[in-house]
Design goal:
The structure holds two protein chains of two kinds. By secondary structure, chain A is mainly alpha-helical. Chain A has helices at about 5-30, 40-65, 75-95, 100-120, 125-150, 160-165, 170-185, 205-215, 220-225, 225-250, 265-275, 280-285, 290-295, 295-315, 325-340, 340-360, 365-385, 400-405, 410-415, 420-430, 435-445, 450-465, 475-480, 480-505, 515-560, 560-565, 575-585, 590-600, 620, 635-640, 680-690, and strands at about 390-395, 470, 610, 695-700, 705-710. The relative contact order of chain A is 0.11. In chain B, strands 2-1-3-4 form a four-stranded mixed beta sheet, sandwiched between helices. Chain B starts with 9 loop residues before the first helix and ends in a 5-residue tail after the last strand. Classes of the chains: A mainly alpha, B mainly alpha.
């Protein structure tokens, strides 16, 4: 089998796997919305954009690839994929009002590119493994859909939930507010009182606002739709890419199709992603398998992180040291990661410095200078995005003490970093390292540098939660990273270990005329774990279905058709007229619709204007009161209307959180007075923030929201 | 004197003795500041030492017979006989005999301890002694860390009445057995209750011997005498079986400390308690249930004797025809689950060994079967037979996401034993398994499997109140652990821990495998230590909480139920002959009494308090109209009130008529004032039954 065929099969497998994930997610999203406002164009455009990022780099890789270019990092698939991500954001930025048309073109290219990959992949035979791989990808994608869309963070019926009962999580509202302020005013801000700069890793809000332009949708819709369709497949693709590059760099033998038929490897990835023990046990040991998909900054940064490492692996194998990599690519990657997720920047920097140190490059002028450049790039980016309130100071084992259940602390190291230990054990086996002396000899010989790096990242990932108080359990975004790195490395090597085991121990000869008991024992022990994994896999999609039906039932009831539904007319759950009638009776329908209408106004018409909603508009300001989240309600208007507010802090008496950059604004010290809401007062306030117009959204006598614009005279 | 190397049971006796001493010390410590005379503590500890060390002394001073009477000269048999004789002395002699037991207990303890210390290395002996004392804090914590039993039980009752109803019901039953010789809850006369009343009867006799109340015995005497019997019984079983299997090889648990480690792992657990609870592996219930704690060692010792009998070269008929059947039937009175599984195991062996071909065994089998069903009907409460409820235990006590692990984890020790035995026999394939079964070489593994399968069955198919299916499924744990310990050496090798290192230590020579094992073991070990202190902490917190509540009330005498309880207790000092013909009546208007127990749903058990504290049966003693009644604890024997108690119901003639149905000729009516001070009225009945 030619080397070329192996390479192509592997990389096509990556594209096909990612594409399956995109299609499955898009299908589930579309099905979940049957009967509601048609978002099919946005779904298809998001799917197309996702396929563009997955498939077009593959074709570019094929086009650029030369016989001798196996280890040229700029021609590698991960680097080209990174470039494609950057390209989509950049082209959206520069194309301005034409972004929608550009997005349509990219989506079309994505569909075409992915379809050709699919045909190419299918025509090469090996159907059994391809079918199993495809089915596996479908199942894992359905699981991912269930996880990402049942969290209150993102939902296919996000708007519908919002207008019905506002039972949505406040995190995305906060992030979307930042994204919208970037979109409208070009400033990272939460926009509660003008647009003061917000220290936050706002890379994903910015990136998503660009992608939302390409998909031609609002940012809030994109968070539920495009985010999932693009980034979840990209995460899986990046794991596979890193595995392929790691395998390639290890110079281990590769046969055609090893990636798609790497069952033990994929099993490990699935177990690592979905979990093989009950979710209550994982939760007890602070293994949060949903967080990777729910946190947009983490899911936005993780594939980038993995692909940067994959690119570095290629560059590391190259004979000549690349100055561009050291002085341009890595500093830029570090800065970008700081804007996406600070933890990933810190870990990448640690890894790079360690490798430079171990390869003795660090002591050369080039190494030292590039390290300094990387440090400066990372530091400057860090200073621009680090939120001081997230740093709670030094507290020993804060994460372990607070995020693992009592009685389970002692399992944290073992369980939380389980995949690191599995990989290290596998490599010890591979290298025949039997004792500490052997380990030390291997370290000195630099033959297990991958193990050293993984152990180093695990230690570095563990430390923040062990010594610092990081708000909201966010130390997980340090300690969870080694899991994905280890899984990718495992995917690269597990099959090889299996072959080695057989070589060293010989395959068991079947006992004459009788079945062996050992496999029965193995199945017996494995059965509960398999059953748990099956349950863990199907639970999220079923939960999604239940939540969807529950919301539809609520909406149908609001339409006055509860009795008919109770009598068994299930068609009402997907009947557009009934659902529309029910939505119109949603508690927040009027206010959310009014804000969405404001959001539809082109950004160019709003960039000198701020929004004011008087405190007397209780339907707005009491939106989150039901579960004591009044502190976050101010974010709703910026996130939906795409406009900054003036005097947008929550009501007097509301306990204001010390997170979410709320320190930027002064809490109310008294109730809003009539004098505060005069046009003159509002203009004065807006003028002080650099705005010349104020849009006032207030209820009329019937309680319906009415808006008027006040032109402020300076 | 036995040969010098025959000290196999010395470690069993020493460990159990120090456990008993530790528990007694904890009890006394927990009562500091209250009425706390030291003599009763010494007496109970002395009695416990008697029960533990007399069998050991007998094995020291008698030569084991090797022939047909081998089973009758085993340590296990001596232990069972010692317990039985002690109970009988309590029944027929009572407190006057106590000093003899205490003195003999202390003397035999000293003698056997000295002999044991001389025969082994000091540091290993010290580990066993200190370990047993440390273990007593765990065991004491489990049994006294919940509201079932407490050194301050009476004080808890006085403060707020928040105690579990189990010991109240059982101590009441024991009192009825003492006063009226009838197993009855005594809520409205003396109807017979089909219940496994073996331990209430046994504890009633032991409390007579100790001169304490049955309730006191449940809270103290039971713990100090029966928990060492429970844990010592398991170790004795392991040692006895080991000696039967390998009579020529010296076996002392003290020389195999890792085996004691396995035992501790099985008791304490290496997973967090919350995790074990989720999989239905409960660490506390085995000590909280007195019937289980007393019954299980009896069953295991009986099994150990059976193994010795089976290994004997020549056999008598007394054991199979008399001792074993009676032992199994006796188990029914202690814990029904033990009788059922024991009966099944015997029948299985009978079938597998084709003993039915022997007319003698056939007759024994038929007689045992008949007696088994008769006993079952006598000891099984009809209310407990609630028909088929699929997966009831799982649904009730195991979260659904943990169901897949239930069989694997709950029966872990059985799987481990069966797997190790198959490995030991070189059985690798189905064909070899079939051959092994045919040859009968793995009958022990078959029995373990049968007991595991039959034990897990009831919880899978029927509803048994309060999670009591656990008392079926848990039996295999101790059987398997005992057998694994017994099989050490061939069944189980612990090379790393048991052999001495042959090379000088150097960091580089540490094997990666060792590091891996240590790394994986570390959190398990940490869980083990966390579990070890968990219950102790709970016991201390419970003790502190009760003390704080008493201090807040201004002393024990000032607690709200103190006077009422004292008044009821004072009735227990009436002569037994007088009490035997008397029924107690407390009108429903006496809210101070009927609301004594304050836990949610505890109104069901308010009627049990008076029989427990006074030793007298009640008449018309069912809880108030409107109280949602439990079906268990004998309440099903009586009609629930359909209407509130009317004044006419409280007339002496009506009460006498009610009492006379059960042969009681006198009614003692109690009224309480607001402080709990009682006024008594005695009505001599002249109504024919």
């Amino acid at each position: 089998m030619s080397h070329r065929a192996v390479e192509i099969d592997d990389r096509e497998t990556i594209v096909v796997g990612g594409s399956i994930a995109s299609v499955v997610l898009a299908t589930i999203y579309a099905l979940a919305r049957v009967g509601f406002e048609n978002q099919m164009p946005e779904v298809l455009r998001s799917l197309g954009l996702s396929l563009f990022i997955l498939a077009i780099p593959y074709w570019l890789w094929r086009a650029f690839r030369k016989r001798d270019s196996d280890f040229v990092w700029v021609r590698s698939q991960p680097f080209i994929t990174l470039a494609a991500v950057a390209f989509t954001a950049a082209i959206a930025l520069v194309s301005g009002p034409a972004a929608s048309g550009v997005g349509l073109t990219l989506s079309t290219l994505g569909f075409i590119g992915a379809l050709i990959v699919l045909f190419s992949w299918l025509r090469n035979g090996g159907f059994r493994s391809r079918i199993i791989f495809s089915l596996g990808a479908t199942v894992v994608s359905a699981w991912a859909a269930g996880v990402v869309w049942t969290s209150r963070y993102k939902m296919p019926l996000y708007w519908e939930t919002f207008v019905t009962n506002a039972n949505v999580h406040h995190d995305p509202v906060y992030l979307i507010a930042i994204g919208n302020m970037l979109r409208t005013y070009g400033v990272a801000s939460t926009g509660l009182e003008g647009v003061p700069y917000t220290f936050y890793h706002y890379g994903t809000p910015w990136l998503f606002s660009r992608w939302a332009d390409l998909v031609n949708t609002d940012l809030m819709s994109f968070y539920s739709l495009g985010y999932a369709l693009i980034l979840i497949p990209l995460l899986f693709a990046s794991i596979a890419m890193l595995a392929v590059e790691a395998r390639k760099a290890s110079l281990l033998p590769r046969t055609q199709g090893w990636l798609r038929s790497n069952w033990w490897g994929w099993l490990a990835v699935s177990i690592g992603t979905i979990g093989i023990i009950p979710d209550s046990a994982m939760y007890a040991m602070a293994i949060w398998n949903a967080h990777a998909l729910i946190s947009e900054s983490y899911l936005g940064g993780l594939p980038i992180f993995m692909m940067v490492i994959a690119t570095c692996i290629i560059a590391w194998r190259a004979e000549q040291r690349s100055l561009v990599l050291l002085f341009v690519f890595l500093p830029l990657a570090l800065a970008a990661l700081a804007f996406l997720k600070i933890s990933l920047m810190v870990l990448l920097f640690g890894m790079v410095v360690y490798v430079l140190f171990r390869t003795r490059v660090l002591w050369t002028l080039t190494g030292a200078a590039s390290t300094a450049v990387m440090f400066i790039a990372g530091y400057l980016a860090y200073k621009a995005v680090a939120l001081p309130a997230h740093n709670g100071g030094i507290t020993a084992f804060h994460f372990i003490r607070n995020e693992t259940l009592p009685g389970w602390h002692q399992f944290f190291l073992l369980a939380h970093f389980a995949w690191t230990w599995v990989y290290v054990a596998g490599r010890m086996f591979e290298e025949r390292i039997d004792d500490v002396a052997g380990f030390w000899a291997a370290v000195k010989a630099r033959s297990i540098i991958d193990v050293e790096v993984l152990l180093g990242v695990s230690l570095l990932g563990f430390l923040p939660g062990a010594v610092l108080l990081i708000h909201g359990g966010s130390a997980i975004y340090f300690s969870d990273v080694p899991r994905w790195l280890a899984l990718a490395l495992l995917l690269a090597r597990v099959g090889h270990w299996r072959n080695l085991w057989r070589e060293r121990h010989g395959s068991r000869a079947p006992a004459a005329n009788s079945m062996r008991l050992a496999p029965i024992l193995a199945v017996f022990i494995a059965a509960p774990f398999i059953a748990t994994m099956f349950l863990n896999t199907i639970k999220p999609p079923l939960r999604l279905l239940r939540q969807n039906i529950s919301l539809r039932s609520d909406i149908v009831s609001r339409a006055g058709a509860e009795a008919e539904l109770g009598a068994g007319n299930r068609k009402l759950l997907v009947d557009p007229e009934t659902l529309e009638a029910g939505l119109r009776r949603g508690t927040y329908y009027d206010i959310v619709t009014a804000l969405r209408e404001i959001g539809a106004i082109p950004a160019g018409e709003k960039d000198d204007m701020v929004l004011f909603i008087p405190q007397s508009y209780r339907n707005y300001w009491a939106m989150f009161d039901v579960d004591d989240r009044c502190t976050y309600v101010g974010f709703v208007a910026p996130s939906v209307s795409e406009m900054a507010m003036i005097d947008g802090m929550p009501a007097f008496g509301c306990k204001i959180t010390d997170q979410y950059n709320m320190q930027l604004y002064a809490p109310r010290e008294r109730d809003q007075l009539p004098a505060d809401v005069t046009d003159t007062a509002l203009c004065a306030r807006a003028g002080a923030k650099g705005f010349s117009r104020v849009m006032i959204l207030a209820p009329d006598q019937q309680g319906a929201p009415r808006r008027r614009v006040v032109e402020c005279v300076t | 004197m036995a040969p010098r190397d025959d000290r196999s049971f010395g470690t069993v006796a020493a460990a159990a003795s120090f456990l008993a001493i530790g528990l007694a010390a904890i009890y006394w410590t927990a009562r500091i500041g209250f009425v706390n005379p030291v003599m009763p503590v010494i007496q109970v500890a002395g009695l416990s030492l008697f029960l533990i060390n007399v069998p050991r002394a007998l094995t020291m001073f008698t030569n084991s017979a090797n022939g047909r009477w081998a089973w009758a000269t085993t340590h296990s048999f001596y232990w069972l006989i010692t317990v039985m004789l002690t109970v009988l002395v309590g029944r027929f002699v009572g407190a006057p005999a106590l000093p003899v037991f205490v003195v003999l207990g202390i003397v035999t303890f000293v003698v056997t301890l000295a002999d044991w210390l001389r025969s082994g290395s000091l540091w290993r002996s010290a580990i066993v002694m200190i370990g047993s004392l440390a273990f007593s804090t765990f065991a004491g914590g489990v049994v006294w860390g919940r509201i079932y039993k407490s050194p301050l039980f009476m004080e808890m009752l006085s403060v707020d009445g928040i105690v579990h109803h189990d010991p109240i019901g059982l101590a009441g039953l024991a009192n009825m057995l003492l006063t009226y010789r009838i197993p009855t809850p005594g809520l409205d006369g003396l109807p017979h209750m089909a219940y496994h009343w073996g331990t209430p009867w046994m504890f009633a006799q032991l409390s007579e011997l100790l001169g304490t109340s049955t309730l006191e015995f449940y809270n103290f005497g039971y713990v100090v005498t029966m928990l060492p019997f429970f844990f010592g019984g398991i170790l004795c079983f392991a040692t006895q079986v080991r000696k039967a299997w390998k009579p020529d090889v010296r076996f002392d648990l003290r020389e195999n400390l890792p085996l004691l480690g396995i035992f501790l792992v099985a008791v304490v657990g290496v997973f967090p308690i919350t995790g074990m609870d989720k999989m239905g592996v409960w660490t506390s219930n085995l000590m909280i249930s007195e019937s289980y704690a007393a019954g299980l060692p009896v069953a295991l010792l009986l099994l150990a004797i059976t193994v010795v009998y089976q290994k004997s070269e020549s056999r008598d008929w007394i054991f199979p025809a008399l001792v074993l059947p009676l032992g199994i039937l006796l188990l029914g009175y202690l814990k029904i689950s033990l009788m059922i599984l024991g009966f099944l195991a015997v029948m299985y062996v009978g079938v597998r060994k084709r003993l039915y071909r022997n007319p003698g065994f056939l007759v024994i089998g038929i007689a045992l079967t008949a007696a088994f069903f008769f006993t079952y009907s006598n000891v099984s409460l009809p209310e407990h037979r609630e028909g088929l409820v699929p997966l009831d235990f799982l649904k009730g006590f195991v979260p659904p996401s943990w169901w897949p692990y239930f069989l694997l984890v709950n029966l872990f020790w059985s799987w481990a034993y069966v797997a190790l035995r198959l490995r030991e026999e070189g059985i690798r394939t189905f064909a070899e398994l079939r051959a092994g079964l045919k040859s009968g070489n793995i009958l022990d593994a078959e029995i373990v499997f049968i007991i595991a399968a039959a034990g897990i069955g009831p919880g899978f198919v029927t509803h048994i109140d309060g999670g009591s299916a656990f008392y079926f499924s848990d039996i295999q744990r101790w059987l398997s652990v005992g057998l694994i310990i017994a099989g050490a050496g061939t069944l189980l090798r612990l090379p790393v821990l048991l052999t001495k290192p042959t090379n000088r230590f150097s960091l580089g020579r540490i094997r990666m495998r060792t590091i891996l094992v240590l790394f994986i073991s570390a959190p398990l070990l940490a869980s083990f230590f966390a579990n070890s202190v968990y219950w102790t902490q709970r016991m201390v917190e419970a003790n502190r909480g009760t003390r704080a509540a008493i201090a807040k009330a201004g002393g024990v005498e000032a607690t709200k139920n103190h006077l009422l309880i004292s008044e009821l207790l004072s009735l227990a000092s009436l002569p037994r002959a007088e009490r035997r013909r008397t029924a107690l009546f407390i009108p429903q208007t006496e809210a101070k009494y009927w609301t004594l127990l304050e836990r949610p749903g505890a109104c069901s058990f308010a009627g049990h308090v008076a029989p427990t504290l006074t030793g007298m049966a009640m008449v018309d003693g069912m809880p108030a109209h409107g109280c949602k009644l439990s079906r268990y604890y004998g309440l099903g024997l009586f009609d629930a009130r359909s209407v509130p108690q009317a004044p006419v119901d409280t007339l002496p003639e009506n009460l006498c008529r009610r009492a006379a149905r059960h042969g009681l000729t006198r009614v003692l009516t109690l009224h309480f004032d607001s402080t709990g001070r009682a006024s008594r009225r005695v009505d001599e009945c002249r109504i024919a039954p």
